[in-house]
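Support case: pyridoxal-5'-phosphate complex. Customer-provided input:
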Amino acid sequence: MSRFFSKKYENLTPYTPGEQPQDMQYIKLNTNESPFPPHPAVAEAVKQEVESLRLYSDPDCKALVAKLAKQYGVAPEQVMLTNGSDDVLNFAFMAFCDEEHPAVFPDITYGFYKVFAEINHIPYAQIPLKEDFSVDVADYCGVNKTVFIANPNAPTGIALSLDEIEKILKSNPNNVVVIDEAYVDFGAQSAVALVEKYENLLVVQTFSKSRSMAGARLGFAIGNKNLMADLNTLRYSTNPYNINRMTSVAGIVTLENQAYTDKNCGIIMENRENAAKALKKLGFALTDSKSNFLFASHPAIDGKTLYTELKRRGILVRHFDKPRISPYVRITVGTAEQMDALIRTIGEILEENQ
Ligand SMILES: *Cc1c(COP(=O)(O)O)cnc(C)c1O
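Agent response - structure generated as follows:
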């Protein structure tokens, strides 16, 4: 820390991203990226766009917003795009939380929520998940705070139903409820269906996981148009050109090829179920994941050792050295070949560990 760093940030603990090692080729199952490349038409569109890079991008991203609005059956005024969904989550903390509207989220969830609360000096509460790692909906009913829930949750993969989310929305009419749907395309129900009915609902999604575009940085929010206006006030006060031209065309072409995304999600869900079965056979306990990752623990090996042993053998998974979840590893679901290699390697590690 320099002596010039503002006191207001001296206690800030930044988010720790998953490893992106450059030293060797790993089977990379640690940051929930898609194992599939973007649709081939994306490369062509991005190449075409290069000529226009001398010009600023459209701050309203009209073409992409219109496509998303159409796909989700909402008006363009109900959609806002950001530089990854982390960007819009930060805006949501800034816009909808303060002393009178503290933030609330589970004790085990996406690590960025806590960081966004802290950087914006927002008071927050963390509610423990139940013993089985599910969200107790009753804890959030009438909680009278700005609610942040990842659905499915990370790193557990467990999803709430639409009925449960509706209970939270209905019982907190004076607070915004943010549903972070980074993983919704892998088998959970989207709350976009409720945005017409609840003016306090903000749904956040991303192109990073199901749409194979983590490196392009594209996220979006859907909700009531007045919420969008608030978020846009903040966006225009920080970086109106937050979506670059190449990302914007990549997003448009990706939406034009929705069948490709659907097919990839289908393969990942199938690989997830097969890998879950194989891991159970090896003695693992797993949560019921509706996402593109598995959350698994084994009675004979702790999470950190398993992570380290897998890394030594060229397979990266994620381990969180945190209370309650340190026995677990989070495994991104990759291709069938990658999952076979994972299962085989875990089998070997377990044998050696006996
Ligand atoms: C990956 C992830 C995000 C953010 O991803 P972006 O790449 O910033 O769009 C948001 N929430 C959860 C729960 C995630 O796992």
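The chain has two domains: 7-37+259-352, 41-256.

Case will auto-close in a few days if no follow-up is received.
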